[in-house]
Amino acid sequence: MAEIAGCFAFWAWLRLDRSALWLVPGVVALALFAWALTRVQVDFAGRAYAAYGGIYIATSLAWLWLVEGQTPAGGPAGAGLCIVGAAVILAGARP
Questions:
Q1: Which of 35, 70, 72, 77 could form a Cys-Cys staple with 61, CB 3.0–4.6 A?
Q2: What is the rounded distance in angstroms from the CA atom of residue 72 to the CA atom of residue 76?
Q3: pLDDT tens digits, residue range 52-88?
Q4: Who's near 68: CB < 8 A, 6+ residues apart?
């Protein structure tokens, strides 16, 4: 959520003519996202990033629906498929 919120803040500033003050929470959100990525142990980084991909897609669809008021193409079924894929990756063989 932090990555999406941070990127949206920059989008709002550049594309929606919002105040440059939107950059302050945007930078904070992106810094929080980058910090969170460093919390993953190196041995599990690949699996964690694969799972993150599925969650990113689901969160992006939720943002599209809840914040922007648009119906996502593929909707809950597509997001569910991504989450199931992420779960399969997470449940895979451990190093």
A1: 72
A2: 8
A3: 887 788 888 888 888 888 877 777 787 778 778 878 8
A4: none
